[in-house]
Amino acid sequence: MQYLMFVATDPEGEPYSAEEDKIEDWWNDVESRGIWKDGNRLRPAEEATTVRVRNGSTLVAGGPFTESKDRIVGYDVLECADLDEAIEVASKHPMARFGQIELRPVWPLG
Question: Measuring CA to CA, which of 23, 34, 66, 68 is 20 to 30 A from 42?
Answer without folding.
Answer: 34
